[in-house]
Amino acid sequence: MTRSRWGRRPAARGRVGLALTCAAVVAALVGCSVARPAVDASQPGDDASAAASTPPASSTEVPPQPRVDVGYPMPRLGPEEAPGLVARLAAMAAPEFTVVARWATPPGASVLGDALDTRFAEMVRGYAEEHGHEWSPGVDIAPGGVGAPCARHPLTEPVGASLTVDCAIVTATGTLLGERLVVIRRDGATATAVDRATWYADAATGEFGDGAALYRPGAEARVLALLAEGLRSAGLAGSADPFAGFTPEGVRRILADTVVTADDIVVQVPLIATPDGRGRGIVAVLVPARLVAPFLSPFGVAVQAAVSGAAPYAPATAPTGADRVDCTLVACVSITFDDGPSRHTEALIDALRDLRAPATFFLQGVNVEDHPDVVGRLVAEEHGLGNHTWGHPYLTKLPDPEVRAEIERTQEGIEAAAEVQATSLRPPYGDVDQRVRDLAGLPIVLWDVDTDDWQEPGSDVVAERAISWSSRGSIVLMHDTHEETVAAVPGIIDGLRDRGFTLATVSDQFGGVLPGSGTLVSHGPR
Ligand code: NI
Hints:
The chain is α/β, with parallel strands linked by helices.
């Protein structure tokens, strides 16, 4: 099921009954704050497009009015309804503070992903600096780790100062994604939501923006008037304008958290608001879509139409290794596989694809020759590729020409198989000296976590070592020539993510560009 949860939320059906009662019994009741009966497009037999174009009201119904819904259930779509997203977790623990920031991005390159990554990178770095620390992402901090994107995670105990970013997918329909992000700052006993915004992005048009972008420039005052009407109908505002004296930024801040549903726009308004748009205690004000329609921007009209249409979500797709990750922002780890490709490598690539986890493969030339198609798949799915020599010798024991030949012949084999070149060398047995480094013509990638999986200690032991011995920036050594290693990989990925790690290629750990030829690394930047 991929349709937006909005269409079939039980609460929506509950309101239908309430609305009908209201319309039938108290049509003349002044201030009846219930709108026209909502059309539940997902009821069996309903046609979503027909529902969307149904005339909104008949003359016997109560005219739609803005209204307050105390305890309004904010939508939070699960991975079944919003599949294919990538989870982000930036966490840091210091003596003075804790940061747990979660958001979700579409896979691969996307304007929304870039915007959110940039926004939260600035936010968490600024917060750490404010407390006299440089940002340094950690693991074992956030319960739930890097789990399903925007899943509901257990809250950490309020210990000292903290910054928390909580995300929720509020809509996923057609090519449109809506993500609500709430930033909570806690200082001692006081917790304040310092920023609330719901972001929308249309993968088809590349357009994106927060809730404030849904409205026509200059129409903000009209929208605020509708919100004020909703507050007044619930007795939450006097006759005066509750938004008088608000700064333009304050207005923008309130409108930024607009959630679009099939029938309404829902704006979270602070009950005790300050002119900068912040405040305490929020209440949801629902404004019927047709009342707000004249004030929507073209982007807002498109978002409203998409949400009303309730088309199945068509997530963007991208190769497994194409997700951009900033390993100075989140805690990365690289799993690496030597000696392949082998007859087990395809199963490994399948598992990595299903879990959307990039890896780095150090290929042995003689096996490349036997499995050229597998090399092609590794390239197509954008995993990292390294050179592991042709015949797996101790390079320090070979004369110069043979060292060069071992490396060059393997480069040629990889190029013949997949028209690319490996970008690093892993010498067999980690056997390297200054002479080999000078001859390599490539950066040298070793490891800091050795699972000794080649001794076949069992999948559970391999997994336990890979998970528990990793730290931020680790490069984990394994071999895709062993079936029990391949069998251990899904558990390893889950276990690393539970601790809060983001899987990245070795190259990703260095911002996409490995250090220069002859440089030796055994882990990423820490
Ligand atoms: Ni090897």
